[in-house]
Amino acid sequence: MRRVSTRLGELDCQVLDAIPEGAAPELAVVLCHGFGAPATDLVPLAQELVELKPELAPKVRFVFPAAPLSLGVMGMPFARAWFHLPQEVLMGRERDWDLFAVSTPEGLAQARRGLMSLLSALSAATKLPYGRIVLGGFSQGGMVTTDVALRLEEAPAGLCILSGTLICQAEWKQRAEKRKGLPVLQSHGRYDDILAFHQAERLNKLLTDAGLSVELVPFNGPHTIAPEVLERMAEFLHDRL
Questions:
Q1: What is the per-residue pLDDT across 183-222, written as a single tens digit (0 to 9) for each?
Q2: 3-state secondary structure of 183
Q3: Residue among 6, 1, 13, 20 nearest 59 (CA)
Q4: Phi, psi of 140, rounded to the nearest 5 degrees
Q5: Burial of 72 from C-beta contacts in 10 A (0-12 / 13-18 / 19+)
Q6: Would you list the DSSP string of 26-46?
Q7: Which residues pair with 8 in a beta bridge?
Q8: pTM for the complete prediction?
Q9: What secondary structure letter does DSSP report for 67?
Q10: What is the pLDDT of residues 223-236, one digit of tens each?
Protein backbone atom coordinates (compact mmCIF):
# COMPACT_ATOMS: atom_id res chain seq x y z
CA MET A 1 0.00 0.00 0.00
CA ARG A 2 1.14 3.53 -0.71
CA ARG A 3 1.75 5.58 2.43
CA VAL A 4 1.92 9.36 2.59
CA SER A 5 2.54 11.65 5.55
CA THR A 6 0.47 14.79 5.22
CA ARG A 7 -1.59 17.33 7.12
CA LEU A 8 -5.37 17.44 6.82
CA GLY A 9 -6.99 20.38 8.54
CA GLU A 10 -5.35 20.78 11.94
CA LEU A 11 -3.95 17.23 12.20
CA ASP A 12 -0.89 15.40 10.92
CA CYS A 13 -1.93 12.13 9.27
CA GLN A 14 -0.70 8.94 7.70
CA VAL A 15 -2.71 8.19 4.55
CA LEU A 16 -2.64 4.71 3.00
CA ASP A 17 -4.32 3.18 -0.02
CA ALA A 18 -3.85 0.80 -2.92
CA ILE A 19 -6.21 2.62 -5.26
CA PRO A 20 -5.15 2.37 -8.93
CA GLU A 21 -3.40 5.42 -10.34
CA GLY A 22 -5.91 7.93 -11.63
CA ALA A 23 -8.87 6.38 -9.79
CA ALA A 24 -10.74 8.03 -6.93
CA PRO A 25 -11.60 6.42 -3.59
CA GLU A 26 -15.16 5.20 -3.12
CA LEU A 27 -14.87 5.23 0.66
CA ALA A 28 -12.56 6.85 3.22
CA VAL A 29 -11.88 5.37 6.66
CA VAL A 30 -10.56 7.57 9.48
CA LEU A 31 -9.19 5.62 12.46
CA CYS A 32 -8.01 7.36 15.65
CA HIS A 33 -5.51 5.85 18.06
CA GLY A 34 -5.92 5.70 21.83
CA PHE A 35 -4.45 7.64 24.75
CA GLY A 36 -0.70 7.23 25.17
CA ALA A 37 -0.15 5.54 21.82
CA PRO A 38 2.24 6.77 19.14
CA ALA A 39 0.66 8.54 16.20
CA THR A 40 1.26 5.53 13.95
CA ASP A 41 -0.17 2.93 16.35
CA LEU A 42 -3.13 1.86 14.18
CA VAL A 43 -1.45 2.22 10.77
CA PRO A 44 -0.85 -1.56 10.38
CA LEU A 45 -4.63 -2.10 10.47
CA ALA A 46 -4.96 -0.83 6.90
CA GLN A 47 -2.93 -3.72 5.49
CA GLU A 48 -4.58 -6.24 7.80
CA LEU A 49 -8.08 -5.15 6.80
CA VAL A 50 -7.23 -5.24 3.10
CA GLU A 51 -5.77 -8.73 3.48
CA LEU A 52 -8.98 -9.88 5.16
CA LYS A 53 -11.16 -8.26 2.46
CA PRO A 54 -9.12 -7.73 -0.76
CA GLU A 55 -12.12 -5.97 -2.33
CA LEU A 56 -11.31 -2.98 -0.10
CA ALA A 57 -7.90 -2.42 -1.68
CA PRO A 58 -8.85 -0.63 -4.92
CA LYS A 59 -11.65 1.43 -3.36
CA VAL A 60 -10.77 2.56 0.19
CA ARG A 61 -8.43 5.28 1.46
CA PHE A 62 -7.34 4.90 5.09
CA VAL A 63 -6.46 7.95 7.19
CA PHE A 64 -4.71 7.72 10.58
CA PRO A 65 -4.52 11.09 12.35
CA ALA A 66 -2.11 11.92 15.15
CA ALA A 67 -3.85 13.20 18.27
CA PRO A 68 -2.99 16.85 18.98
CA LEU A 69 -1.53 16.51 22.48
CA SER A 70 2.00 15.30 23.21
CA LEU A 71 2.59 13.33 26.42
CA GLY A 72 6.30 14.09 26.44
CA VAL A 73 6.01 15.85 29.80
CA MET A 74 4.85 12.52 31.24
CA GLY A 75 8.04 10.85 30.08
CA MET A 76 6.49 9.39 26.93
CA PRO A 77 8.11 11.35 24.07
CA PHE A 78 6.26 9.55 21.25
CA ALA A 79 2.89 9.23 23.01
CA ARG A 80 -0.13 11.30 21.96
CA ALA A 81 -3.57 12.01 23.41
CA TRP A 82 -6.84 13.49 22.22
CA PHE A 83 -7.59 14.93 25.65
CA HIS A 84 -6.35 14.49 29.20
CA LEU A 85 -7.77 11.78 31.46
CA PRO A 86 -8.45 11.83 35.21
CA GLN A 87 -5.60 10.56 37.39
CA GLU A 88 -7.61 7.57 38.66
CA VAL A 89 -8.08 6.38 35.07
CA LEU A 90 -4.39 6.79 34.25
CA MET A 91 -3.37 4.88 37.38
CA GLY A 92 -5.91 2.11 36.80
CA ARG A 93 -7.51 2.75 40.18
CA GLU A 94 -11.17 2.14 41.01
CA ARG A 95 -13.24 4.90 39.47
CA ASP A 96 -16.77 6.23 39.68
CA TRP A 97 -18.15 5.02 36.35
CA ASP A 98 -21.44 6.85 36.82
CA LEU A 99 -19.56 10.12 37.17
CA PHE A 100 -17.23 9.28 34.27
CA ALA A 101 -20.21 8.55 31.99
CA VAL A 102 -21.82 11.95 32.53
CA SER A 103 -18.57 13.92 32.42
CA THR A 104 -17.28 16.03 29.53
CA PRO A 105 -13.50 15.57 29.52
CA GLU A 106 -11.36 18.70 29.50
CA GLY A 107 -9.97 19.16 26.00
CA LEU A 108 -12.69 17.20 24.21
CA ALA A 109 -13.94 20.31 22.40
CA GLN A 110 -10.47 21.01 21.00
CA ALA A 111 -10.05 17.39 19.92
CA ARG A 112 -13.45 17.52 18.24
CA ARG A 113 -12.52 20.68 16.39
CA GLY A 114 -9.30 19.12 15.10
CA LEU A 115 -11.03 15.98 13.88
CA MET A 116 -13.82 17.97 12.22
CA SER A 117 -11.22 20.08 10.40
CA LEU A 118 -9.60 16.86 9.16
CA LEU A 119 -12.93 15.56 7.85
CA SER A 120 -13.63 18.82 6.05
CA ALA A 121 -10.21 18.74 4.38
CA LEU A 122 -10.52 15.03 3.55
CA SER A 123 -13.95 15.53 1.98
CA ALA A 124 -12.66 18.40 -0.14
CA ALA A 125 -9.56 16.47 -1.25
CA THR A 126 -11.38 13.25 -2.16
CA LYS A 127 -14.71 14.76 -3.32
CA LEU A 128 -16.39 12.33 -0.92
CA PRO A 129 -19.36 13.53 1.16
CA TYR A 130 -19.34 12.68 4.87
CA GLY A 131 -21.80 9.94 4.01
CA ARG A 132 -18.91 8.11 2.31
CA ILE A 133 -16.53 8.40 5.27
CA VAL A 134 -16.37 5.83 8.08
CA LEU A 135 -15.18 7.09 11.46
CA GLY A 136 -13.62 4.92 14.11
CA GLY A 137 -11.05 4.60 16.81
CA PHE A 138 -9.60 2.60 19.65
CA SER A 139 -10.22 3.50 23.32
CA GLN A 140 -9.98 7.30 23.60
CA GLY A 141 -9.99 7.46 19.80
CA GLY A 142 -13.35 5.68 19.92
CA MET A 143 -14.68 8.31 22.33
CA VAL A 144 -13.72 11.30 20.19
CA THR A 145 -15.01 9.72 16.97
CA THR A 146 -18.32 8.82 18.64
CA ASP A 147 -18.65 12.42 19.79
CA VAL A 148 -17.93 13.75 16.28
CA ALA A 149 -20.17 11.20 14.52
CA LEU A 150 -23.10 12.37 16.65
CA ARG A 151 -22.40 16.04 15.90
CA LEU A 152 -21.71 16.22 12.16
CA GLU A 153 -24.37 17.96 10.07
CA GLU A 154 -24.36 14.92 7.77
CA ALA A 155 -24.18 11.38 9.16
CA PRO A 156 -20.99 9.46 8.34
CA ALA A 157 -21.09 6.14 6.48
CA GLY A 158 -20.53 4.26 9.71
CA LEU A 159 -18.85 4.29 13.12
CA CYS A 160 -16.42 1.76 14.60
CA ILE A 161 -16.04 2.00 18.40
CA LEU A 162 -13.15 -0.28 19.38
CA SER A 163 -12.96 -0.60 23.17
CA GLY A 164 -14.42 2.86 23.68
CA THR A 165 -16.71 3.95 26.49
CA LEU A 166 -19.54 6.25 27.50
CA ILE A 167 -18.91 9.94 28.23
CA CYS A 168 -21.10 13.05 27.76
CA GLN A 169 -24.11 10.82 28.46
CA ALA A 170 -26.90 13.42 28.38
CA GLU A 171 -25.64 15.13 25.23
CA TRP A 172 -24.85 11.90 23.40
CA LYS A 173 -28.32 10.59 24.18
CA GLN A 174 -29.94 13.72 22.77
CA ARG A 175 -27.79 13.80 19.66
CA ALA A 176 -28.03 10.05 19.02
CA GLU A 177 -31.76 10.40 18.44
CA LYS A 178 -30.90 12.32 15.25
CA ARG A 179 -28.70 9.47 14.01
CA LYS A 180 -31.32 6.73 13.71
CA GLY A 181 -30.13 3.95 11.44
CA LEU A 182 -26.43 4.85 11.59
CA PRO A 183 -24.43 1.60 11.23
CA VAL A 184 -22.18 1.10 14.26
CA LEU A 185 -19.66 -1.67 14.94
CA GLN A 186 -18.75 -1.79 18.62
CA SER A 187 -16.24 -4.16 20.20
CA HIS A 188 -15.03 -4.62 23.77
CA GLY A 189 -13.10 -7.15 25.82
CA ARG A 190 -14.98 -8.76 28.69
CA TYR A 191 -11.82 -8.57 30.82
CA ASP A 192 -10.92 -4.97 30.00
CA ASP A 193 -9.32 -3.49 33.13
CA ILE A 194 -8.95 0.01 31.64
CA LEU A 195 -12.47 0.76 30.40
CA ALA A 196 -14.94 -1.62 32.01
CA PHE A 197 -17.06 -3.92 29.84
CA HIS A 198 -20.27 -2.93 31.61
CA GLN A 199 -19.67 0.66 30.46
CA ALA A 200 -19.50 -0.55 26.87
CA GLU A 201 -22.86 -2.21 27.45
CA ARG A 202 -24.25 1.10 28.72
CA LEU A 203 -23.02 2.86 25.60
CA ASN A 204 -24.50 0.11 23.47
CA LYS A 205 -27.89 0.54 25.14
CA LEU A 206 -27.84 4.31 24.73
CA LEU A 207 -27.12 4.07 20.99
CA THR A 208 -29.47 1.15 20.38
CA ASP A 209 -32.34 2.80 22.27
CA ALA A 210 -31.84 5.90 20.11
CA GLY A 211 -32.35 3.81 16.96
CA LEU A 212 -28.80 3.37 15.71
CA SER A 213 -28.00 0.03 14.06
CA VAL A 214 -25.41 -1.25 16.54
CA GLU A 215 -23.59 -4.57 16.45
CA LEU A 216 -21.67 -5.34 19.63
CA VAL A 217 -18.77 -7.78 19.26
CA PRO A 218 -17.67 -8.87 22.75
CA PHE A 219 -14.56 -11.00 23.13
CA ASN A 220 -12.76 -12.80 25.92
CA GLY A 221 -9.79 -10.48 26.26
CA PRO A 222 -8.39 -7.27 27.76
CA HIS A 223 -8.12 -3.70 26.40
CA THR A 224 -7.15 -4.52 22.84
CA ILE A 225 -8.40 -5.20 19.30
CA ALA A 226 -9.01 -8.93 18.96
CA PRO A 227 -8.51 -10.83 15.67
CA GLU A 228 -12.24 -11.61 15.45
CA VAL A 229 -12.95 -7.88 15.72
CA LEU A 230 -10.70 -7.12 12.75
CA GLU A 231 -12.46 -9.81 10.73
CA ARG A 232 -15.85 -8.30 11.49
CA MET A 233 -14.51 -4.79 10.84
CA ALA A 234 -13.31 -5.78 7.38
CA GLU A 235 -16.81 -7.07 6.61
CA PHE A 236 -18.35 -3.90 8.08
CA LEU A 237 -16.24 -1.71 5.78
CA HIS A 238 -17.02 -3.95 2.79
CA ASP A 239 -20.73 -3.52 3.52
CA ARG A 240 -20.29 0.27 3.31
CA LEU A 241 -18.96 0.12 -0.27
A1: 999 999 999 988 999 999 999 999 999 999 999 999 999 9
A2: strand
A3: 20
A4: -60, -30
A5: exposed
A6: SEEEEEE--TTEETTTTTHHH
A7: 11
A8: 0.95
A9: P
A10: 999 999 999 999 99
